[in-house]
Write a structure and sequence with these properties.
Chain lengths: 239, 109
Amino acid sequence: MTQHSGTGRIFKKAIVDSLSLPAFILLTTMMGFGSLARSAGFSPEMAALATALIWGLPGQLAMVELTTTGQSLFAIIFACSLANARFFPMVVSFIPTMTRQRTGFFQLALFAQLLSINSWAMCMRQFPDIDPDFRKFYYIVFAASILSAAIAGTLLGYYVSAILPDALLLGLIFLSPLFFALVLSAASKPGERASLILGCAVVPLAHLYFPDVDLLITGVVGGSLGYLLGRTSAVQRLL
Amino acid sequence: MSNETLWLIVLGCAAATFIWRLLGVVVVKKINPDGALFEWVTCVSYAMVAGLIFRMIIMPESRLAEVSLLVRCAAVAIAFAAYFGFRRMLLAGVLAGSVSLSVMVSWFG
């Protein structure tokens, strides 16, 4: 199979791929965040900067929710950090898929800062079709494109979401988890597929007993079981 | 809260999220991307993301909690049906699921 290559073509592909859906998803998702940030008392500049720098919706939502309920500064920052802890394994699994070349620390830190579930899920799906020499470039263009859409969405939501009818707003909020669910259903390796299923199975219990660290527990328990099951021949045949 | 506190919250949250990303960069330089450890970490990230999405849909803390569980599940089923029906087209699945949720909400309240 031929892989996509060439600066111009990769740039075009990254823009087209991002505009085909992810940019729209982030625009609408961040509208929800923008409207919540407004009701929590943040200024539009703060809301836009939160999207640009935190760049992880679960943590952003934890931030606005706890600010609304008047928690302490430390408690808010701690909760946001835990809600975004998934970036640790995501960065570890993402970088070698993108590049095997030696890459400088600051460049890697920049790649890590730009990572979001959207770019992680889309790139894990697209990278096999892209020439390895152009994956970094594809990722940077894609990430910059959806980040711009996210910031625009935050500001749009800050100013206009109050006038949208409820049914429409709920449909917009629903776009984001739906998009991730569909993108992830394309995971191909048995271990990854088993981990996806087990993650869904473990999270209700983890959430019930350890609500603050439910996703960490879900990741370690579901991922370890998924990893082990993925090595058995029965699961390899089944998934 | 005062403006200064709110700024501190935003910047503090950004720094506290960046710590996890940085930890990933530090660790990724030390492990073999073809080894078992890397495969395990990838499985952990898949399980975490799946758990997060499952929680967003089934046990939401967002405004989706206002929508009944049955409606949410029906909309997910419609989304997957459209996705596979239209040869794995993401746009078809996402639109079908989102529009059907909006329609069900306005019908059943």
